[in-house]
Amino acid sequence: MNHSFTTNIRPLDNLVIIDMLGEIDAFADQEIQSAYTQAESFETPTIVLNFSQVGYINSTGIALIVGLISRARKTGRHLAVFGLSEHYLEIFRITRLADFVSIYNDEPSVLAEK
């Protein structure tokens, strides 16, 4: 498995998008936490996770996402996601993560809503 994982932070008017590239597993933890902390510094009400370049998420990765949801709720932020494959969209539904985040198909859908 390739353990390369990178993020890019894109602040917009009322939200911040975290673009993610690679596999979300234990090796991605530090990068995700750092990116989220950086996104929080913009003090926008919404943080958006872009999964369009994420090819794999294991159970540790799901736990990381749960942690981000918890962080968002504690600070009164809304967490949204886009770019999930059909498989991971189903995982979000089965695990009920979909109950705690807004799910969009793509970035234009997020921007049209915000």
Summarize it.
The chain is α/β, with parallel strands linked by helices and 114 residues long. 39% of the residues lie in helices and 32% in strands. The longest helix has 16 residues, at 59-74.
Task: Name some characteristics of this structure.
114 residues, alpha/beta, 5-stranded mixed sheet, Transcription Regulator spoIIAA
Summarize the SSE layout with pairings.
Elements: E1 5-11, E2 15-24, H1 29-40, E3 46-57, H2 59-74, E4 78-82, H3 86-94, E5 102-104, H4 107-113
Write up this protein.
- By secondary structure, the chain is of the alpha/beta class.
- It contains four helices and five strands, in the order ββαβαβαβα.
- Strands 1-2-3-4-5 form a five-stranded mixed sheet.
- α3 links the parallel β4 and β5.
- It is globular, with a radius of gyration of 13 Å.
- The model has no long low-confidence stretch (mean pLDDT 95).
